[in-house]
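W.,

You were right to be curious about this one. When I first looked at the sequence I had no strong expectations either way, so I just let the prediction run and decided to look at it fresh. Below is the sequence, 72 residues in total, followed by the output.
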Amino acid sequence: MLRIPWNAFRTNKAILEELCITQRLSSIVQARILTFFGHVSRRDNDSIERLVVPRFFLGQPDVHLEIAHEMG
């Protein structure tokens, strides 16, 4: 892309400015994750994503998956 040698002293900020990148990657990923959760929250109650996602982000164990694992 920019053909910068590995031993050149360039800051990350200078490279991002040269590439005209204004938005951080973490911000883009966070927006896409929230969009996905919006889709999941409007799904039917029987979807596996709707069962797993809320507990995963609250740090709680997923009881439904533990029961299914014990049964199968």
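Here's what jumped out at me. The first helix runs from residue 12 to 18. And, maybe more interesting for your project: The helical segments are 12-18, 25-41, 48-58, 63-71.

Coffee later to discuss?

I.
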